[in-house]
Amino acid sequence: MTTTATAAPRATTAPAPLLEVEHLTMRFGGLTAVNDLSFTAAKGEITAIIGPNGAGKTTVFNCLTGFYRPTAGALTLHTAAGARKLERMDGFRIARAGVARTFQNIRLFPSLSVLENLLVAQHNLLMRASAFSIAGLFGLPSYRKVETEALELAVDWLRRVELMDHADRLASELPYGHQRRLEIARAMCTRPAVLCLDEPAAGLNPRESLELNDLLLSIRDRDGVGLLLIEHDMSVVMTISDHVVVLDYGRKISDGLPEAVRNDPAVIRAYLGEEEDDELPPEVAADLGISPEAQ
Ligand SMILES: Nc1ncnc2c1ncn2[C@@H]1O[C@H](COP(=O)(O)OP(=O)(O)OP(=O)(O)O)[C@@H](O)[C@H]1O
Fold it and tell me: Which stretches make up the ABC transporter domain (predicted)?
């Protein structure tokens, strides 16, 4: 894959909201993992959620995708179909409403082929087209049309993530970086309005990381899909994000453009910790643009 990723921010007028998170709280017993969190992810933008380990990032995704039912708060998805309240829906309905996701630990169907993984992702659409009947599966022209479209979409994504030559291999046989790309392609085959990516750069080498940047920017720009990104790799976050939300101990401590967030003293403190003589790891300091004297 060629790599051309450059700094992202481009919006001049305020973009329309895609996902509104209002006063989201998630408690596990006595632990408040997410505490009164509010932010808006806009249409056609990449919104990164960052923060130290245990800050509550994955818990936000688990609330957004129906893995957890929030203790309190509202989650509203705005699509062409109207505004949908997600906070009381199960994962299946949330997926149908247009929210797709990838995981920190890749979750593919390992014993299915690469192509089959992309077709299974479209299972719901195919079953609806069959009117949930055997007769539909074999007889309805409308089913055959949807089936052809599903195959075309799968092939289109195989090309975009450069896995066409691997279409018939088992997903489990792919190298790690290829599996990451397949997982993103599979999520995109569900035709989402918003794609939630949990540490997509984890385990990738620098070249693969640059390729990932290009892929995510193309999903934003070509597919018009809004992205929510949890990522520890600050070079990815600072290069492609339009908007960054920072969590610490479940609370939002900063929210804005990447340049503003990386210069925010609250963010620097969160990454530094409480100890005065702590120092940021050099790679984090470099990506946040902090000179050694400033620490
Ligand atoms: N199902 C659960 N039951 C109890 N505690 C949980 C559960 N899920 C998450 N937590 C706790 O909630 C807090 C936030 O966890 P979460 O995984 O959301 O953080 P994170 O910011 O994604 O961390 P990391 O960057 O390390 O992945 C942690 O203290 C975690 O132990």
Answer: 19-274
